Structures are given as C-alpha cells and as structure tokens.
Amino acid sequence: ARETLSTELQLLKAQVQPHFLFNTLNNIYSLTLLESEKAGEIVRKLSALLSYMFGECDKPEVALSQEIELLRNYTELEQIRYGRRLKVTLQIDGELSGIQVAPLLLIPFVENAFKHGASEQTDQANIDIQLGIKGNQLTFRITNSMASVGSEARTNKGGLGLKNVRKRLALLYPDRYNLITSADANRFMIDLTITLVLRRRNSLSHTMI
Question: Secondary structure of the chain in the HEC alphabet?
C-alpha cells in the first residue's frame, strides 16, 4: 500500500500538464516585452507552485493552508491565461490551523475544472471552489461551467483523472471519505467529504475571492 501511495503521488506531480507550464511561460515572456509589473508576480507564483509540488510534497501529510496556497497560485496563474472571460471564486471557512492532509489532495479536481470547463468554452466561464472545516469534517465542493454536450459526455467528465483520485482517496482515507460527481446541462460538480484525524485546532475563518 505504501508503494502504491508513493507511485500515485509521483503520478500526481507528473500531472502538471505541459501546456499549463508553457502557457504560463509564454505569458511571462509577453508581459516582459511589455515591461509589465505583472511579469515578476507571475514568476513568483509559478516558482512557489513548483517549489511546493516538487520540494514539500514527499511528506505523508502537509498543512491544509499549504494546499490552499497551491490552489490560489494555480488558479491565479490560469486566470491570467483566460482573462476576463473566466471568473474564479475561492471560499475557505472553518478552523484551519493545525489541520493536516495528504499532499496534492485537491489540485486534481481544480485541474479537471479547467481542463473540462474553461478550456472547452468560448464564452464566459465560471469556476467556484468552496472548502470548509467543521469539527473533524473537511468538505470540498468545486463547480465549473462547461459547454453544452450530450448526457453521456456530461456523465463522463473527468474520466481517468478522477478515477485515479478515487483510488488515492481509498488508500489514504479508507471508509472515511465520500466523493460524489454530478452534472446538469451546463455545470459539472464535485463534492468531497473527508473525516480527518485532528491533532490540534485554533480558530481561523476567512474568505478569499
């Protein structure tokens, strides 16, 4: 089981899609030509993202706050790519201090929302992310708009990526998680609940948009 977890983690690291890195680097190059102050900020966010993913994620658990920072950096970099036609909201609620989770636990869901949502739409796209801690329960919901497709295609959004995430959750949190996917004509939704083993908690509640 430990070997399987290690393999799954390495695969997750490899899932940072090349097109994401290339697009980010192209954005940096373009902004540098324009002498935009944004170029330095993009470099900082990309550096922080890669440093965390490839330098801090070999531990069995990491601080939930680090996972949230990863989501923020990732979504903000993608926001630059899509511009005004994409709206992303990220809301965090609950007692976060001291909460530990498996590394790279949530990023596959966010990648899925961009891959099967924003990248396939030519009009306004929306991604809404909500994460909460209440007692020993972690709840995570992500909703993304998507182009109108057939019912079978809607049901299969996420494909192999979400199947791999389910396998990792089963290894990490056996009998302690619930993952539900659903879709309607123009939205795809993922709801994840995990029962955590808490060590210590201090009150902290905030919202980021």
Answer: CHHHHHHHHHHHHHCCCHHHHHHHHHHHHHHHHCCCCHHHHHHHHHHHHHHHHHHCCCCCCEEHHHHHHHHHHHHHHHHHHHHHHEEEEEEEEECCECCEECCCCCHHHHHHHHHHCHHHCCCCEEEEEEEEEECCEEEEEEEEECCCCCHHHHHCCCHHHHHHHHHHHHHHCCCCEEEEEEECCCEEEEEEEEECCCCCCECCCCCEC
